[in-house]
Amino acid sequence: xxxxxxxxxxxxxxxxxxxxxxxxxxxxxxxxxxxxxxxxxxxxxxxxxxxxxxxxxxxxxxxxxxxxxxxxxxxxxxxxxxxxxxxxxxxxxxxxxxxxxxxxxxxxxxxxxxxxxxxxxxxxxxxxxxxxxxxxxxxxxx
Length: 142
Description:
This protein is α+β, with helices and mostly antiparallel strands. Helices cover about 45% and strands about 25% of the residues. It has two domains: about 5-50, no CATH class; about 55-135, ACT domain (Alpha-Beta Plaits, 2-Layer Sandwich). It has a four-stranded antiparallel sheet.
């Protein structure tokens, strides 16, 4: 059973109350994603595919240098992920990139893909953030 927008809004509000209004956004997002996964897994003990499939949002930024897009897209390709949209902007020495990626056909779950992106982030000395589309949508509606 998929969690409704209203239920996610309530989970998010309770998380913010619990962590405090000054809690970093990343910490709130991780906690909300974890709670959603717990709820969905408890409803489907065999494991829910809803939080590990669908679309994810990648945001990345840092000092521009060759190989950034190639490294990220190669990882997605190796994991059978489909890049649905990509936006990149280079401002002098800096770059920003946003991707919408479908991970439905991937054999890996979101957590495993995040771990791979963390390795790429460290190797390239850039920042990469991944969020499930649902968490991204609901966090930005509050």
